[in-house]
Protein backbone atom coordinates (compact mmCIF):
# COMPACT_ATOMS: atom_id res chain seq x y z
CA UNK A 1 0.00 0.00 0.00
CA UNK A 2 1.70 3.15 -1.17
CA UNK A 3 1.75 6.65 0.26
CA UNK A 4 -0.62 5.71 3.05
CA UNK A 5 -0.34 7.53 6.40
CA UNK A 6 0.37 5.36 9.42
CA UNK A 7 -2.74 6.56 11.25
CA UNK A 8 -6.02 7.89 9.88
CA UNK A 9 -9.24 8.96 11.57
CA UNK A 10 -12.29 7.20 10.21
CA UNK A 11 -14.87 10.03 10.41
CA UNK A 12 -12.66 12.13 8.12
CA UNK A 13 -12.78 9.44 5.45
CA UNK A 14 -16.56 9.09 5.29
CA UNK A 15 -17.92 10.66 2.12
CA UNK A 16 -14.61 10.50 0.26
CA UNK A 17 -14.68 9.19 -3.32
CA UNK A 18 -13.40 5.68 -4.04
CA UNK A 19 -11.27 5.35 -7.18
CA UNK A 20 -10.12 2.44 -9.31
CA UNK A 21 -6.52 2.16 -10.66
CA UNK A 22 -7.47 4.17 -13.78
CA UNK A 23 -8.59 7.11 -11.67
CA UNK A 24 -12.33 6.62 -12.27
CA UNK A 25 -14.64 7.11 -9.31
CA UNK A 26 -16.60 3.95 -8.52
CA UNK A 27 -18.32 4.95 -5.29
CA UNK A 28 -18.20 6.79 -1.97
CA UNK A 29 -16.98 5.64 1.42
CA UNK A 30 -19.89 5.45 3.87
CA UNK A 31 -18.61 3.45 6.87
CA UNK A 32 -15.96 1.07 8.18
CA UNK A 33 -16.55 -2.45 9.45
CA UNK A 34 -14.60 -3.67 12.49
CA UNK A 35 -14.46 -6.95 14.36
CA UNK A 36 -15.13 -6.38 18.05
CA UNK A 37 -14.66 -9.43 20.29
CA UNK A 38 -14.74 -8.70 24.03
CA UNK A 39 -11.48 -9.53 25.77
CA UNK A 40 -9.50 -10.49 22.66
CA UNK A 41 -6.84 -8.89 20.51
CA UNK A 42 -6.86 -5.39 19.06
CA UNK A 43 -10.05 -4.69 17.04
CA UNK A 44 -9.40 -5.40 13.38
CA UNK A 45 -10.74 -3.19 10.60
CA UNK A 46 -12.21 -5.62 8.10
CA UNK A 47 -13.15 -3.22 5.32
CA UNK A 48 -15.28 -0.35 4.12
CA UNK A 49 -18.94 0.01 3.31
CA UNK A 50 -19.00 1.73 -0.08
CA UNK A 51 -21.97 3.22 -1.85
CA UNK A 52 -22.14 2.53 -5.60
CA UNK A 53 -24.82 3.18 -8.24
CA UNK A 54 -26.18 5.97 -6.07
CA UNK A 55 -27.81 3.73 -3.44
CA UNK A 56 -26.34 0.23 -3.33
CA UNK A 57 -23.91 -0.53 -0.49
CA UNK A 58 -21.17 -3.11 -0.91
CA UNK A 59 -18.30 -4.36 1.20
CA UNK A 60 -14.71 -3.60 0.16
CA UNK A 61 -12.07 -5.53 2.18
CA UNK A 62 -9.12 -3.51 3.43
CA UNK A 63 -6.91 -5.89 1.45
CA UNK A 64 -8.32 -4.24 -1.70
CA UNK A 65 -7.41 -0.73 -0.54
CA UNK A 66 -4.20 0.55 -2.08
CA UNK A 67 -4.13 4.19 -1.00
CA UNK A 68 -5.74 6.47 1.58
CA UNK A 69 -5.27 10.20 1.98
CA UNK A 70 -7.31 13.23 3.00
CA UNK A 71 -8.98 13.52 -0.39
CA UNK A 72 -9.57 10.03 -1.74
CA UNK A 73 -9.37 6.29 -1.30
CA UNK A 74 -8.08 3.97 -4.04
CA UNK A 75 -8.60 0.25 -4.57
CA UNK A 76 -7.20 -2.56 -6.66
CA UNK A 77 -10.23 -2.10 -8.95
CA UNK A 78 -12.04 -5.43 -8.56
CA UNK A 79 -15.13 -5.05 -6.37
CA UNK A 80 -17.69 -7.66 -5.39
CA UNK A 81 -21.09 -6.09 -6.07
CA UNK A 82 -23.00 -8.30 -3.64
CA UNK A 83 -24.95 -6.18 -1.18
CA UNK A 84 -23.25 -5.66 2.17
CA UNK A 85 -24.78 -7.68 4.99
CA UNK A 86 -23.46 -7.13 8.47
CA UNK A 87 -22.54 -10.17 10.56
CA UNK A 88 -23.26 -10.49 14.29
CA UNK A 89 -19.57 -10.20 15.22
CA UNK A 90 -19.11 -6.99 13.21
CA UNK A 91 -19.69 -3.36 14.15
CA UNK A 92 -20.02 -0.24 12.03
CA UNK A 93 -17.83 2.63 13.16
CA UNK A 94 -20.15 5.44 12.07
CA UNK A 95 -23.38 3.60 12.68
CA UNK A 96 -22.61 2.00 16.05
CA UNK A 97 -19.43 3.37 17.67
CA UNK A 98 -19.89 7.11 17.21
CA UNK A 99 -21.74 8.66 20.18
CA UNK A 100 -21.26 5.50 22.27
CA UNK A 101 -20.65 6.35 25.94
CA UNK A 102 -17.34 4.94 27.17
CA UNK A 103 -15.05 5.24 30.18
CA UNK A 104 -11.28 5.61 30.31
CA UNK A 105 -9.81 2.75 32.32
CA UNK A 106 -8.35 3.73 35.70
CA UNK A 107 -9.82 7.23 35.71
CA UNK A 108 -13.00 9.19 36.32
CA UNK A 109 -13.21 10.22 32.66
CA UNK A 110 -16.37 9.27 30.76
CA UNK A 111 -17.50 10.64 27.42
CA UNK A 112 -18.90 9.95 24.00
CA UNK A 113 -16.86 8.75 21.03
CA UNK A 114 -16.59 11.30 18.24
CA UNK A 115 -13.95 9.53 16.13
CA UNK A 116 -11.64 6.50 16.07
CA UNK A 117 -8.21 6.12 14.50
CA UNK A 118 -6.97 3.11 12.58
CA UNK A 119 -3.49 2.13 11.45
CA UNK A 120 -1.64 -0.78 9.89
CA UNK A 121 -0.09 -3.36 12.15
CA UNK A 122 3.19 -5.12 11.34
CA UNK A 123 1.28 -7.93 9.62
CA UNK A 124 -0.32 -5.30 7.32
CA UNK A 125 -3.76 -5.72 8.90
CA UNK A 126 -5.64 -2.53 9.70
CA UNK A 127 -6.59 -2.22 13.38
CA UNK A 128 -8.28 0.32 15.63
CA UNK A 129 -5.56 2.12 17.51
CA UNK A 130 -7.04 5.17 19.24
CA UNK A 131 -10.39 6.48 20.39
CA UNK A 132 -11.30 10.18 20.48
CA UNK A 133 -13.96 11.06 23.01
CA UNK A 134 -15.53 14.19 24.43
CA UNK A 135 -16.72 14.60 28.00
CA UNK A 136 -20.16 16.09 28.68
CA UNK A 137 -20.10 19.87 28.95
CA UNK A 138 -20.01 21.18 32.51
CA UNK A 139 -21.25 24.59 33.55
CA UNK A 140 -23.38 27.10 31.70
CA UNK A 141 -20.54 28.74 29.81
CA UNK A 142 -18.95 25.64 28.32
CA UNK A 143 -20.55 24.52 25.10
CA UNK A 144 -18.29 21.48 24.73
CA UNK A 145 -16.64 19.23 27.28
CA UNK A 146 -12.96 18.35 27.39
CA UNK A 147 -11.71 16.04 24.63
CA UNK A 148 -9.37 13.06 25.00
CA UNK A 149 -7.56 10.79 22.58
CA UNK A 150 -6.62 7.50 24.21
CA UNK A 151 -5.35 4.07 23.18
CA UNK A 152 -8.11 1.64 22.27
CA UNK A 153 -7.30 -0.68 25.18
CA UNK A 154 -7.75 2.16 27.67
CA UNK A 155 -11.44 2.40 26.78
CA UNK A 156 -14.19 0.47 28.54
CA UNK A 157 -17.52 0.17 26.73
CA UNK A 158 -16.62 -0.39 23.08
CA UNK A 159 -18.54 -3.66 23.03
CA UNK A 160 -21.95 -4.67 24.32
CA UNK A 161 -25.26 -2.85 24.11
CA UNK A 162 -25.49 0.93 24.35
CA UNK A 163 -29.10 1.75 25.29
CA UNK A 164 -28.40 5.44 25.95
CA UNK A 165 -26.31 6.05 22.84
CA UNK A 166 -26.89 9.57 21.58
CA UNK A 167 -26.70 11.01 18.09
CA UNK A 168 -24.70 14.24 18.40
CA UNK A 169 -21.50 13.17 16.63
CA UNK A 170 -23.27 11.29 13.84
CA UNK A 171 -25.55 14.26 13.27
CA UNK A 172 -22.47 16.41 12.84
CA UNK A 173 -21.16 14.00 10.23
CA UNK A 174 -24.35 13.98 8.16
CA UNK A 175 -25.13 17.69 8.52
CA UNK A 176 -23.33 18.53 5.27
CA UNK A 177 -24.67 15.59 3.28
CA UNK A 178 -27.30 15.83 0.59
CA UNK A 179 -30.69 14.56 1.80
CA UNK A 180 -30.40 11.40 -0.31
CA UNK A 181 -26.95 10.60 1.11
CA UNK A 182 -28.11 11.26 4.66
CA UNK A 183 -31.13 9.02 4.06
CA UNK A 184 -28.88 6.23 2.82
CA UNK A 185 -26.72 6.42 5.93
CA UNK A 186 -29.74 6.49 8.26
CA UNK A 187 -31.46 3.63 6.42
CA UNK A 188 -28.52 1.31 7.02
CA UNK A 189 -28.28 1.96 10.77
CA UNK A 190 -29.64 -0.54 13.30
CA UNK A 191 -33.32 0.17 14.04
CA UNK A 192 -32.88 1.86 17.43
CA UNK A 193 -29.96 3.93 16.17
CA UNK A 194 -31.88 4.88 13.02
CA UNK A 195 -34.81 6.14 15.06
CA UNK A 196 -32.58 8.03 17.51
CA UNK A 197 -30.65 9.81 14.74
CA UNK A 198 -33.72 10.64 12.65
CA UNK A 199 -35.64 11.93 15.67
CA UNK A 200 -32.74 14.25 16.56
CA UNK A 201 -32.88 16.04 13.19
CA UNK A 202 -34.71 19.36 13.04
CA UNK A 203 -38.12 19.32 11.35
CA UNK A 204 -36.98 20.70 8.00
CA UNK A 205 -34.00 18.36 7.70
CA UNK A 206 -36.07 15.36 8.84
CA UNK A 207 -38.68 16.17 6.20
CA UNK A 208 -35.97 16.24 3.49
CA UNK A 209 -34.58 12.92 4.66
CA UNK A 210 -37.99 11.25 4.97
CA UNK A 211 -38.71 12.10 1.34
CA UNK A 212 -35.67 10.02 0.35
CA UNK A 213 -36.29 7.02 2.63
CA UNK A 214 -38.23 3.85 1.77
CA UNK A 215 -41.87 3.87 2.89
CA UNK A 216 -41.32 1.39 5.71
CA UNK A 217 -38.62 3.64 7.21
CA UNK A 218 -40.87 6.69 6.83
CA UNK A 219 -43.74 5.02 8.67
CA UNK A 220 -41.42 3.66 11.37
CA UNK A 221 -39.81 7.04 12.09
CA UNK A 222 -43.03 9.03 11.94
CA UNK A 223 -44.60 6.51 14.31
CA UNK A 224 -42.15 7.26 17.14
CA UNK A 225 -42.66 11.04 16.99
CA UNK A 226 -45.31 12.65 19.11
CA UNK A 227 -48.36 13.66 17.08
CA UNK A 228 -47.67 17.39 17.18
CA UNK A 229 -44.15 16.98 15.86
CA UNK A 230 -45.20 14.44 13.25
CA UNK A 231 -47.71 16.95 11.90
CA UNK A 232 -45.03 19.67 11.84
CA UNK A 233 -42.69 17.40 9.86
CA UNK A 234 -45.45 16.55 7.37
CA UNK A 235 -46.01 20.28 6.83
CA UNK A 236 -42.33 20.65 5.89
CA UNK A 237 -42.53 17.88 3.28
CA UNK A 238 -43.63 18.48 -0.30
CA UNK A 239 -47.39 17.95 -0.52
CA UNK A 240 -47.22 14.91 -2.81
CA UNK A 241 -44.64 13.16 -0.60
CA UNK A 242 -46.67 13.98 2.51
CA UNK A 243 -49.78 12.54 0.87
CA UNK A 244 -47.94 9.36 -0.11
CA UNK A 245 -46.72 8.92 3.47
CA UNK A 246 -50.09 9.61 5.07
CA UNK A 247 -51.66 7.06 2.72
CA UNK A 248 -49.41 4.39 4.30
CA UNK A 249 -50.55 5.15 7.86
CA UNK A 250 -53.47 3.55 9.72
CA UNK A 251 -56.66 5.55 8.94
CA UNK A 252 -57.09 6.80 12.52
CA UNK A 253 -53.47 8.01 12.67
CA UNK A 254 -53.76 9.70 9.29
CA UNK A 255 -56.95 11.49 10.35
CA UNK A 256 -55.35 12.67 13.58
CA UNK A 257 -52.29 14.09 11.83
CA UNK A 258 -54.36 15.84 9.18
CA UNK A 259 -56.37 17.45 11.96
CA UNK A 260 -53.16 18.72 13.60
CA UNK A 261 -51.69 20.16 10.39
CA UNK A 262 -52.27 23.72 9.34
CA UNK A 263 -55.68 23.82 7.57
CA UNK A 264 -54.24 25.00 4.25
CA UNK A 265 -51.56 22.30 4.23
CA UNK A 266 -54.03 19.62 5.26
CA UNK A 267 -56.44 20.67 2.53
CA UNK A 268 -53.75 20.27 -0.12
CA UNK A 269 -52.86 16.80 1.14
CA UNK A 270 -56.52 15.74 1.32
CA UNK A 271 -57.01 16.83 -2.27
CA UNK A 272 -54.11 14.67 -3.40
CA UNK A 273 -55.41 11.74 -1.37
CA UNK A 274 -58.80 12.03 -3.11
CA UNK A 275 -57.36 10.74 -6.41
CA UNK A 276 -57.13 7.04 -7.21
CA UNK A 277 -53.73 5.39 -6.91
CA UNK A 278 -51.46 5.47 -9.97
CA UNK A 279 -53.32 8.30 -11.66
CA UNK A 280 -51.96 11.66 -12.73
CA UNK A 281 -53.80 13.32 -9.84
CA UNK A 282 -52.22 11.00 -7.28
CA UNK A 283 -48.71 11.41 -8.74
CA UNK A 284 -48.66 15.15 -9.34
CA UNK A 285 -46.95 17.83 -7.33
CA UNK A 286 -49.00 20.91 -6.55
CA UNK A 287 -45.97 23.17 -6.22
CA UNK A 288 -44.79 23.84 -9.79
CA UNK A 289 -43.55 27.25 -10.96
CA UNK A 290 -46.72 29.23 -11.70
CA UNK A 291 -46.69 32.76 -13.17
CA UNK A 292 -49.25 35.30 -14.31
CA UNK A 293 -49.29 36.33 -18.00
CA UNK A 294 -47.85 39.77 -17.16
CA UNK A 295 -44.67 38.27 -15.67
CA UNK A 296 -41.45 38.79 -17.62
CA UNK A 297 -38.88 36.29 -18.85
CA UNK A 298 -36.57 37.66 -16.14
CA UNK A 299 -39.22 36.83 -13.50
CA UNK A 300 -39.49 33.28 -14.85
CA UNK A 301 -35.72 32.73 -14.91
CA UNK A 302 -35.42 34.03 -11.36
CA UNK A 303 -38.03 31.51 -10.22
CA UNK A 304 -36.45 28.49 -11.91
CA UNK A 305 -33.03 29.35 -10.45
CA UNK A 306 -34.35 28.27 -7.05
CA UNK A 307 -31.87 25.55 -5.94
CA UNK A 308 -34.66 23.72 -4.09
CA UNK A 309 -36.42 22.93 -7.38
CA UNK A 310 -35.72 19.58 -8.98
CA UNK A 311 -34.41 19.65 -12.54
CA UNK A 312 -37.74 18.47 -13.92
CA UNK A 313 -39.76 21.08 -12.01
CA UNK A 314 -37.41 23.82 -13.22
CA UNK A 315 -37.81 22.74 -16.86
CA UNK A 316 -41.26 24.33 -17.28
CA UNK A 317 -43.13 27.35 -16.00
CA UNK A 318 -46.92 27.33 -16.04
CA UNK A 319 -48.71 30.54 -16.99
CA UNK A 320 -52.21 30.89 -15.56
CA UNK A 321 -54.83 33.48 -14.83
CA UNK A 322 -55.40 34.35 -11.17
CA UNK A 323 -55.54 32.81 -8.66
CA UNK A 324 -52.02 31.42 -8.93
CA UNK A 325 -52.36 28.72 -6.28
CA UNK A 326 -53.71 25.34 -7.49
CA UNK A 327 -56.44 25.01 -8.49
CA UNK A 328 -55.55 28.16 -10.44
CA UNK A 329 -57.42 30.20 -12.96
CA UNK A 330 -57.35 28.97 -16.55
CA UNK A 331 -54.03 27.53 -17.72
CA UNK A 332 -52.85 29.63 -20.68
CA UNK A 333 -49.84 27.49 -21.56
CA UNK A 334 -46.37 26.43 -20.51
CA UNK A 335 -42.98 27.96 -21.24
CA UNK A 336 -39.93 25.72 -21.67
CA UNK A 337 -36.69 26.78 -20.01
CA UNK A 338 -34.81 26.47 -23.32
CA UNK A 339 -37.19 28.93 -24.96
CA UNK A 340 -36.90 31.34 -22.03
CA UNK A 341 -33.12 31.39 -22.37
CA UNK A 342 -33.42 32.53 -25.99
CA UNK A 343 -35.72 35.48 -25.29
CA UNK A 344 -34.87 39.01 -24.06
CA UNK A 345 -35.33 39.18 -20.27
CA UNK A 346 -37.81 42.07 -20.51
CA UNK A 347 -40.18 40.13 -22.79
CA UNK A 348 -43.45 38.98 -21.27
CA UNK A 349 -43.47 35.27 -20.53
CA UNK A 350 -46.87 35.04 -22.20
CA UNK A 351 -45.11 35.66 -25.51
CA UNK A 352 -43.00 32.51 -25.14
CA UNK A 353 -45.77 30.03 -24.44
CA UNK A 354 -46.16 26.59 -25.94
CA UNK A 355 -49.95 26.51 -26.10
CA UNK A 356 -50.04 23.43 -28.33
CA UNK A 357 -49.24 21.01 -25.52
CA UNK A 358 -52.22 18.92 -24.42
CA UNK A 359 -52.44 18.80 -20.62
CA UNK A 360 -53.04 15.70 -18.55
CA UNK A 361 -56.32 14.92 -16.85
CA UNK A 362 -56.17 13.91 -13.17
CA UNK A 363 -57.87 10.54 -13.83
CA UNK A 364 -55.38 9.43 -16.50
CA UNK A 365 -53.59 6.19 -15.59
CA UNK A 366 -49.88 5.71 -15.17
CA UNK A 367 -49.44 4.15 -18.63
CA UNK A 368 -51.21 7.10 -20.25
CA UNK A 369 -49.03 9.54 -18.37
CA UNK A 370 -45.87 7.69 -19.39
CA UNK A 371 -46.98 7.65 -23.04
CA UNK A 372 -47.76 11.36 -22.93
CA UNK A 373 -44.32 12.31 -21.55
CA UNK A 374 -42.57 9.99 -24.02
CA UNK A 375 -44.58 11.17 -27.03
CA UNK A 376 -43.77 14.84 -26.46
CA UNK A 377 -40.24 14.32 -25.04
CA UNK A 378 -41.22 16.00 -21.77
CA UNK A 379 -39.82 15.85 -18.27
CA UNK A 380 -43.00 17.41 -16.83
CA UNK A 381 -46.58 18.08 -17.90
CA UNK A 382 -49.51 20.08 -16.48
CA UNK A 383 -52.59 18.45 -14.96
CA UNK A 384 -55.86 20.37 -15.39
CA UNK A 385 -59.50 19.93 -14.35
CA UNK A 386 -62.43 19.97 -16.85
CA UNK A 387 -62.49 23.78 -16.68
CA UNK A 388 -58.83 24.05 -17.71
CA UNK A 389 -57.60 25.11 -14.27
CA UNK A 390 -54.11 23.95 -13.31
CA UNK A 391 -54.19 21.35 -10.52
CA UNK A 392 -50.52 20.49 -10.54
CA UNK A 393 -47.80 18.90 -12.64
CA UNK A 394 -46.50 15.37 -13.10
CA UNK A 395 -42.72 15.17 -13.45
CA UNK A 396 -40.69 12.27 -14.73
CA UNK A 397 -39.41 11.85 -11.15
CA UNK A 398 -42.99 11.35 -9.93
CA UNK A 399 -43.67 8.90 -12.73
CA UNK A 400 -40.57 6.78 -12.04
CA UNK A 401 -41.28 6.69 -8.31
CA UNK A 402 -44.64 5.10 -9.06
CA UNK A 403 -43.56 2.85 -11.95
CA UNK A 404 -40.52 1.26 -10.34
CA UNK A 405 -40.95 -1.54 -7.77
CA UNK A 406 -40.92 -0.56 -4.11
CA UNK A 407 -37.40 -1.93 -3.60
CA UNK A 408 -35.97 -0.37 -6.77
CA UNK A 409 -33.13 1.29 -4.81
CA UNK A 410 -31.91 -2.14 -3.79
CA UNK A 411 -32.49 -3.92 -7.10
CA UNK A 412 -29.01 -3.65 -8.59
CA UNK A 413 -27.48 -6.71 -10.25
CA UNK A 414 -25.01 -8.79 -8.28
CA UNK A 415 -21.58 -9.50 -9.68
CA UNK A 416 -18.25 -7.76 -9.84
CA UNK A 417 -17.22 -4.30 -10.95
CA UNK A 418 -13.87 -4.12 -12.73
CA UNK A 419 -11.81 -0.97 -12.72
Short structural summary:
By secondary structure, this protein is of the alpha+beta class.
Summarize this structure as a short list of keywords or feature phrases.
419 residues, alpha+beta, MgtE N-terminal fold, 4 domains, 7-stranded mixed beta sheet, 6-stranded antiparallel beta sheet, 15 helices, 25% strand, elongated
Descriptive overview:
By secondary structure, the chain is α+β, with helices and mostly antiparallel strands. It has 4 domains: 7-89, PRC-barrel domain (SH3 type barrels, Roll), CATH 2.30.30; 95-156, no CATH class; 168-274, MgtE N-terminal domain-like (MgtE N-terminal fold, Alpha Horseshoe); 290-403, CBS-domain (Roll), CATH 3.10.580. The chain is 30% helix and 25% strand. The protein is built from 15 helices and 20 strands. The protein has helices spanning 93-97, 168-174, 179-187, 191-200, 203-210, 215-224, 227-236, 239-247, 251-260, 263-273, 280-283, 297-304, 337-341, 366-375, 396-403, and strands at residues 7-9, 17-19, 25-35, 44-52, 56-61, 65-68, 73-75, 78-80, 90-92, 101-104, 110-120, 126-134, 147-151, 155-156, 290-291, 316-320, 331-336, 380-384, 390-395, 416-418. The strands form 5 sheets. Strands 2, 3, 4, 5, 6, 7 and 9 form a 7-stranded mixed sheet that branches. Strands 1, 10, 11, 12, 13 and 14 form a 6-stranded antiparallel sheet that branches. Strands 15-16-17 form a 3-stranded mixed sheet. β10 (101-104) and β11 (110-120) form a beta hairpin. It is elongated and about 75 Å long.
